[in-house]
Amino acid sequence: MPSPRKRLAPQERREQILQAARETFARRPYAEVSMTDIARDAGVSRSLLNHYFDGKLELLVELMRRYAQDGPEAVRTDLDLPVPEMVATNVDSWLTFVEENRPASLAYLGDGPLAQPPQLRALTEELRDGMVRRIATNHFGGPDVSPSVRLALRAYTGMFEVVCYDWLIAGDMTRAQVRALLSTALLAIVREVVPVLEQPPDDLA
């Protein structure tokens, strides 16, 4: 006779389900995962799972919400290192975060359901803005930078998305290649691109 299911407080049960969903989404593509799969992996009944979450999109959105909140923290602003080493260390830290949060990373990279539904697009923007603020703090002394600098750093986060897609999903790049590209690109943006963008408009013509 199977042992009775352990009774947990609602918040503990919710966290247990989210952890199971994280692991289930990491093993299989979103389209192949069912709520029944997640309930089984969480060790709960389907009815109990539905009590906490209406569907697998809601589960993925919650994982992505946490990803958007925690992701920028991977970019450290307290590293007392030469700039090239600081950049390389932060790129490594971000790539580790991406690997450890694969389901939300795939959603961030556009491999989630419905080609980024509105809930995920808003969280993607939250993550991107958080990364820009922390990169700006590292290289320009604080998060308040000119519009041209902000645009350059947002463009850099777009490069992050492309190369991480090629690494995690397409398999066309190795982590070492991604690290080298992202580290070199950020240094080039800060040292060469930003000074050009900060010139008067007439000088850019």
Describe the overall structure.
- Helix content is 71%, strand content 0%.
- It has two domains: 10-54, Homeodomain-like (Arc Repressor Mutant, subunit A), CATH 1.10.10; 62-204, Tetracycline Repressor, domain 2, CATH 1.10.357.
- It starts with 9 loop residues before the first helix and ends with a helix.
- By secondary structure, it is mainly α.
- The radius of gyration is 20 Å and the shape is elongated.
The CATH architecture designation of the largest domain is: Orthogonal Bundle
The rounded distance between the terminal residues' Cα atoms is 79 Å
Largest sheet: number of strands, sense, barrel closure = none
CATH class of the largest domain: Mainly Alpha
Oligomer: single chain
Helix-strand pattern: HHHHHHHHHH
Query: What's the rounded overall pLDDT mean?
Result: 86
Q: Name the beta content range.
A: under 5%
The helix/strand class is: mainly alpha
**Helical segment count:** 10
User: How many E strands?
Assistant: 0
**What is the CATH topology assignment of the largest domain?**
Tetracycline Repressor, domain 2
Q: Sum up the overall morphology in one term.
A: elongated
Give the radius of gyration: 20 Å
Helix content: over 70%
Unreliable segments of 5+ consecutive residues: none
